[in-house]
């Protein structure tokens, strides 16, 4: 089982979603308060398990309705993903760039699997 790790930063509070092997599979934006951060975690737990994947790396891709995962390539040509809530707000981004599309898709599946029942830990 994975875990949500809440941590203070210089500018606020953020969380990382870690897989059972300790690898960071997703990270949040920086929130202004711990309660806002916990609301972000609740949104990931609610939205991630059933969110469809919008593959923006495919030509003429089909636009999906939020909540959804967006699979895309970054400026360095690596594959990344982000999870948007039903209001379109980005609530989680991949913790790293992936060299292959399959690896990024595995990252999305790991978020889906770990989001619902991961413990919340404060650093």
Descriptive notes:
It is built from 2 helices and 8 strands. A hairpin with a 5-residue loop joins β5 and β6. 24% of the residues lie in helices and 32% in strands. The chain is of the alpha/beta class. The chain has a single domain, classed as PH-domain like (Roll). The model has no long low-confidence stretch (mean pLDDT 95). The chain has a 4-stranded mixed beta sheet with strand order 3-2-1-8, with helices on one face. Strands 4-5-6-7 form a 4-stranded mixed beta sheet, covered by helices on one side.
CATH topology: PH-domain like
Strand line-up across the major sheet: 3-2-1-8
**N-to-C order of helices and strands:** EEEHEEEEHE
Structural class: alpha/beta
Strand content: 25-35%
Task: Specify the helix fraction band.
Answer: 10-25%
Mean pLDDT: 95
Q: Indicate the CATH architecture.
A: Roll
- Largest sheet descriptor: 4 strands, mixed
How many extended strands? 8
Number of helices, where a helix is a run of at least 4 consecutive DSSP H or I residues: 2
Distance separating the two termini = 18 Å
> Which radius of gyration do the C-alpha atoms yield?
14 Å
Shape: globular
Any idea how many domains?
A: 1
Q: Which ranges are low-confidence, i.e. pLDDT below 50, for 5 or more consecutive residues?
A: none
